[in-house]
Amino acid sequence: MSLRDWHRVLHIYAKEFSTSKAMAKSKYEYVRSFEFEDRCLQNCWIVVRLDGRSFHRFTSSHKFEKPNDKRALELMNRSAAAVMEEFRDVSLAYGQSDEYSFILRKNTDLYNRRQSKIMSAINSIFSSSYVYYWNTYFEDKKLLYPPSFDARIVLYPTDQNLRDYLSWRQADTHINNLYNTAFWGLISMKGLSNNEAEKVLSGTVSSEKNEILFKECGTNYNNELPIYRKGTVLVRKLVNLPPSKSKKHVICPLHVDIIGDSFWEEYNEILNSKDVILNKDFKPDDIFYLVKRS
């Protein structure tokens, strides 16, 4: 067979292959029409909030300390830091108990702002990190079964909306922790049953719960660890870590008030969507998570 004939045969096969491929594509690709665009509105803060699913059963099965298990909270923080390591557009995260909120920049183009992609990616990284780092924080406890988290996305158009959202979550932290501290204090120190403790606290306001804690349990609520009372806010910092002179991005857990103005004045780059500036007051012995991709 001549070279010319070979070219003719190859041309025929190539034509048949491309035709069959086109037919297969046209035959099955129609299923993509069932998908829908779920892009988040432009110029809005994107907040992804994760909540533990059936976490009451999970904490009971793993015998978490009451009212707070510090190791469990630190594990949540480490898992949230893993999300921030993966996605630089997450400028801040806030967590308490079994929930975490991730704040994405208003101008983010992550996954073309597709809601389902952003939500599923953050949830999967957080959940898998929780399992991955379990033994780091619970060396003496076996993970009996994997935890699960549900997720939602909410958009906030203004900076004040975002601040009000975070203020709401931190106020909720205080309300829930004060109740739980008083509730478990009455059980562990006064020997009350669950129902009896509930009746004592029913209808009480914050000042009354504080008084019950102090008089009945000998506990000054203000002396409780800030991580319990205020939750954890994760922020990015650019620092010089010895012995290297190179700049490194780190994620720092803070247990501070985020309702007032002082936090937002100190970390003004968050709302202004600016790059993180070099932090000269950073102490290398502070708790932080090193961003591996920096």
Give an overview of the whole structure.
This protein has 294 residues and is of the alpha+beta class. It has eleven helices and seven strands. A seven-stranded antiparallel sheet has the order 4-1-3-2-5-6-7, sandwiched between helices. Belongs to the tRNA(His) guanylyltransferase family.
Percentage beta strand: 15-25%
* Radius of gyration using CA atoms only: 26 Å
Overall form: globular
Give, in spatial order, the strands making up the sheet with the most strands: 4-1-3-2-5-6-7
**Which sheet architecture does the biggest sheet show?**
7 strands, antiparallel
> What distance separates the N and C termini?
61 Å
Order of helices and strands: HEHHEEHHEHHHHEEHHE
> How would you classify the helix and strand content by structural class?
alpha+beta
List the total number of helices: 11
Percent in helix: 40-55%
Would you report the number of β strands?
Answer: 7
Poorly predicted ranges (pLDDT <50, ≥5 residues)? none
Q: Mean pLDDT, as a whole number?
A: 91
Provide the descriptors you would attach to this structure in a database record.
single chain; 294 residues; alpha+beta; 7-stranded antiparallel sheet; 7 strands; globular; magnesium
Helices and strands in order:
Blueprint: H1 3-28, E1 45-52, H2 55-61, H3 70-86, E2 90-96, E3 99-104, H4 115-132, H5 134-137, E4 149-156, H6 159-190, H7 194-201, H8 206-217, H9 226-230, E5 232-240, E6 247-254, H10 262-266, H11 269-272, E7 289-290
Antiparallel strand pairs: 1-3, 1-4, 2-3, 2-5, 5-6, 6-7
